[in-house]
Amino acid sequence: MAIDSRTVSYSIIVPVFNEEAVLPILLRRLDLLLTRLNGPAEVIIVDDGSSDSGTIVLEALVKRDPRYRLIGLSRNFGHQVAITAGMDAAQGQAIVVMDADLQDPPEVVEQLIAKWEEGYEVVYARRLSRAGESRFKRSTAHLFYRILGRMTSVRIPADVGDFRLIDRKVLDALRQMPERDRFVRGMIAWLGFRQTEVTFHRLERAAGETKYPLLKMTRLALAAAPRLFRCALTPGNLVWALGVVPGPPLPRLGACAVDEQGQPPGCRLVLDHGRHIAPMRT
Predict the structure, then answer these.
(1) Do residues 206 and 22 touch, judged by C-beta distance below 8 A?
(2) How far is CA 46 from the centre of its chain?
(3) pLDDT (tens digit, 9 = 90+) per residue, 158-176?
(4) What pTM did the predictor assign?
(5) Phi, psi (5° rounding) for residue 19?
(6) CB atoms closer than 10 angstroms to residue 250
(7) SS3 call for 275
(8) Residue 146 within a domain
């Protein structure tokens, strides 16, 4: 029997892409987390067009365990669209986003919830360390946030990814934002609300290979502020963004124009306890 959507306290969204190597460990730790939570929870796994055997494992899981739901994208649309698909399906009063590679430890979710129960509406997890990452990757991540911070008046915390909890009211507001090029953490920062952090040490990926090589990181950077890059980033502003000369303030993140549909692409279908229950927007 599927969980009654009216009773769901927590929705945990986990995008996956070719993660068959890490799934056994991930699912075991998620099971342990669910037993410790103080209210009913669902885990929404978003399969972002995987080509490995992990999909078979996940389809079998949702048939036997009603706490798990599976969304299958028609192809690999990318991490930010996968997060958006999971959020569209979330039924909980608090929504958590975490990666599947266990660099976002499921155990930290309880700390996020504790802050939410104190009244915070956005609780993000900030990394104190990043084990297993090269100096180049750490340096480019730092540069990315430095440039982005200069290009927008919105404060986007450094050393923070998409691992966070948001309240239902934040999700409702986020779903009204029509950006096609999604940069979820920036959009949440732009929305405001009462925000705080918890800290953790990020470990090496538990198994498998990184799904964010340099090319994908570059694409994420370009998606982070589409209006800035497409409309307002003149050569002079680029020099200013790099910190060489002063320049004028640029438009705020979230102000970009979209097409008339304004939706992230993708054919999505929710599976709940082995049954197709809800076509998602395309």
Answers:
(1) yes
(2) 11
(3) 778 889 999 999 999 988 8
(4) 0.71
(5) -115, 30
(6) 21
(7) strand
(8) no
